[in-house]
Inverse folding.
């Protein structure tokens, strides 16, 4: 759909945009521009180049992609930090309740950050982690916050955000969604589903670059009453008054914390431009076409691989995983042949479908290479078994 | 000392390196390199380009500048986040004590983050904020953590880190230092002073770029027992095992949180290279020469300006402030004439001395321009009174 807007190395079929999106060509120029602003404007860049307004400006760009109102999303920090911040806000909305409900398909850092927050809060709080399909059964009046990731990072399994949010609300719980594998991958309608809180990251389907900042959403009617646990100066009503006491900024502004990473924000901004003339509904339709084709090709060509993702595309995000006991070595063999996906312990090889820069020819070619690796046991090579630090 | 290594715009005398350091020429090339790594290596950059090791590698570079042992400093997040993380760790070291002691010369975000943390922790904790000169008098056995910034952001007034840390320890309190205006400005000897915790930022004297990440130090003998409040996945012992439970990494590694901002880290790394053949003691000596000269020139030339910084250079960091009721307009007039300092409410004009790229000719020239502004009332111009969002 927009392949010409991305830098894609020759000979590479990139099926890992669900982990790190490729470089948008315009992001390179925007990065040069930000560097020159730093060089030439120095400290005055905060005003003159609009750096200080980046978090809000980019938040509004992302809002449009996730069905959120203007001025309800702000960009900054890492996703882990935003999870902490959102969950703390959610717990404060239900002071009489003690339980955070999540599932074991959530990305681990969400669970770790929750554990750390609950330890820090000290009162009698607990984290209940159930199987993804059992979340609905555990929603009752003990639950303060239902904290879920919409799309499972391992298998692409997708929760029904609207239904679970409704159920959470019927039980008096706050709904908090991690959209890491949703934003830019499929239509999200936060306003319609009425969830109180959401977070997400921008280096996957949004192509913001390695370590690009995260985002946080607070439902507009609640934003002015959220008490920020991470009460940073740039979330203050008047940061440059240098008051000794914290007075939170209006609305989502209070979820800002510290100084924004200007260079990362600049590349992200260029990456978000691409979405201006793309319909997320079209992206979703193309993603389903690509993933269905891939599953069909792989199942025909590679009978030893087991589909680990839901077969129904409506129940998946924009990625597909297969399992095999030698998954790690298979993925290394694929990467050596230019097909970049990734591996998730213990045995899953994972492929992301990003229609902005992938077409069906790529998908078929990738399946062909995978077939060759499997039929000729090309993965059976000691060098492919050496685990890298990051897998 | 190293002026040729920086990009400094023509006609500018930059006296605001204490707020945002200028672009190191090598950082521009390193940024291009990081962009190309992203473009060509895509997800494999995390291993192949060493991105995943950036926080530790850069931490070790900074450690040498602040008298810290190898593997005791790690880079990431913003300074606000690192304050929260360090203070939470400090409070957990003294579970029986209830008071955080700070001073009203601390940078506001430190106080705000402390307030937010104490509210989050909920138990009967309080933040006591006293005048900087009264800190010693308030150290008693109620104090859990003494949380101070070594150098006052407004005036440059410098605490005696060794003496106050000793006193904190005599009273059984944990000592936590914010080195935002110290790192790269003056010799810091964390190991000698034995402070438990320190944090700092890298976009001031270390020239890491706008929004460059912060750092945190934990005294090595304590690092393995710190319970991270911000328990992010990259602080896990085995992040890519994707365990459901958090097991903190060894030593300072557990103070990592989320995905590092690779582009910002790259420029910071190039900026840190400059320190490899510079002695921080020489930098300090030159900084004192420059600031003494500036004070003397300004006091001679501009009798209406009042020195707001300690007169004794041993009691100052690497910046000098003067007050004047029209401080804001005076600073705008200076900036319009190429002398970039900054303004801190209510009435201080602030000048940073950064010997890496400033010499005495710059200082004298800046004083001359200031003299002209004051004697000819050049500040008395309505355009200089329009306050920008960031001042």
């Amino acid at each position: 759909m927009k392949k010409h807007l991305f830098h894609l190395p020759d000979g590479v079929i990139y099926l890992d945009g669900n982990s790190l999106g490729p470089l948008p060509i315009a992001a390179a120029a925007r990065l040069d521009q930000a560097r020159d602003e730093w060089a030439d404007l120095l400290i005055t860049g905060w005003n003159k180049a609009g750096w200080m307004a980046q978090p809000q400006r980019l938040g509004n760009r992302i809002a449009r992609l996730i069905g959120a109102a203007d001025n309800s999303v702000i960009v900054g920090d890492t996703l882990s930090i935003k999870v902490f911040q959102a969950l703390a806000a959610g717990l404060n909305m239900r002071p009489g309740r003690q339980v955070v409900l999540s599932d074991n398909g959530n990305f681990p850092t969400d669970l770790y950050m929750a554990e750390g927050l609950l330890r820090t809060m000290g009162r009698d709080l607990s984290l209940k982690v159930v199987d993804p399909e059992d979340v609905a059964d555990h929603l009752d009046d003990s639950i303060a916050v239902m904290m879920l990731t919409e799309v499972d990072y391992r298998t692409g399994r997708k929760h029904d955000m609207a239904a679970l949010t409704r159920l959470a609300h019927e039980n008096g719980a706050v709904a908090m969604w991690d959209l890491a594998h949703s934003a830019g991958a499929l239509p999200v309608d936060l306003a319609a589903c009425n969830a109180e809180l959401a977070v997400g990251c921008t280096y996957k389907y949004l192509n913001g670059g390695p370590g690009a900042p995260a985002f946080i959403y607070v439902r507009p009617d609640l934003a002015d009453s959220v008490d920020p646990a991470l009460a940073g100066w740039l979330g203050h009503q008047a940061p440059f008054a240098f008051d000794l006491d914290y007075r939170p900024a209006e609305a989502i502004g209070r979820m800002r914390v510290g100084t924004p990473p200007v260079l990362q924000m600049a590349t992200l901004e260029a990456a978000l431009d691409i979405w201006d003339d793309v319909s997320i509904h079209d992206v979703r339709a193309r993603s389903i076409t690509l993933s269905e084709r891939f599953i069909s090709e792989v199942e025909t060509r590679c009978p030893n691989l087991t589909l680990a993702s839901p077969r129904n595309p409506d129940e998946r995000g924009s990625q597909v995983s297969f399992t095999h006991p030698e998954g790690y070595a298979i993925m290394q063999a694929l990467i050596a042949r230019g097909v970049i996906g990734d591996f998730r312990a213990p045995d899953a090889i994972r492929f992301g479908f990003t229609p902005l820069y992938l077409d069906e020819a790529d998908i078929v070619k990738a399946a062909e290479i995978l077939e060759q690796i499997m039929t000729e046991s090309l993965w059976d090579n000691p060098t492919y078994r050496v685990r890298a630090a990051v897998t």
About this structure: Residues 280-301 of chain A form the longest helix (22 residues). Chain A has a mean pLDDT of 96. Chain A has two domains: 25-277, 279-385. Chain A touches chain B through 92 residues (CB under 8 Å).
